[in-house]
Specification:
The chain is an alpha+beta fold. It has a domain at about 25-140. It has two helices and eleven strands, in the order αβββββββββββα. Strands 5, 6, 7, 8, 9 and 10 form a six-stranded antiparallel beta sheet that branches. Strands 4-3-2-1-11 form a five-stranded antiparallel beta sheet, with no helix packed on it. A hairpin with a 4-residue loop joins strand 6 (about 90) and strand 7. It starts with a helix and ends with a helix.
């Protein structure tokens, strides 16, 4: 029982310390409006750009109903991700044009596109190297994920304080016994 309280305390402390800063300076765009079961998350390093590069992509994860989740390896030294569209632009509300092709260590690949080469094609796709079954969704688009205001995050942390105080009390009572 004592360990449960310690775990709770450290979990609350960890949430309070990391909750507000985990995405500081990073901007998330999600695949929305597509076929159910298709999800994508793209993390970029700036809120907007009219001339982005593959180096602006921090993370790219695609989930499809059959192939599951594929996380692109974006290490520049590996050369496993590149732009399939010479134009990569976005603003604070959506991706306006891009085409990214990325591979993971197993050779599985993902394609993330928005208005590819000005054609209007939006795509989220994933294929496992072992199955060669490409799953494609062209019904969605890449839009900025809602980000909570700092006041909301602070309020959430403050709501956790009573739990932390209660845990401290329980810990002290257990030590006294």
């Amino acid at each position: 029982m004592r360990h449960l309280f310690k775990i709770t305390l450290f979990s609350i402390a960890g949430f309070g310390l990391s909750g507000a800063s985990s995405y500081a300076g990073l901007y998330e765009y999600d695949w929305v409006g597509g076929t159910p079961g298709y999800y994508g998350t793209l993390i970029l390093d700036s809120p907007s750009s009219t001339g982005g590069s593959i180096n602006d992509v921090v993370s790219l994860t695609i989930t499809t109903p059959i192939n599951g989740t594929i996380v692109a390896d974006l290490n520049p030294a590996d050369g496993n991700a590149y732009l399939a569209d010479s134009t990569f632009t976005w603003n604070s509300s959506q991706i306006t044009e891009m085409g990214i092709l990325g591979f993971d260590a197993a050779g599985d690949y993902v394609i993330a596109a928005q208005n590819l080469s000005g054609s209007g094609l939006n795509q989220l796709s994933g294929e496992l190297a072992s199955t060669a079954y490409d799953e494609v969704d062209i019904g969605g688009s890449w839009v900025a994920a809602p980000v909570p205001e700092p006041g909301t995050v602070i309020s959430g942390v403050l709501l956790m304080v009573p739990f932390g105080v209660n845990t401290f009390r329980k810990l002290r009572q257990n030590r006294a016994q």
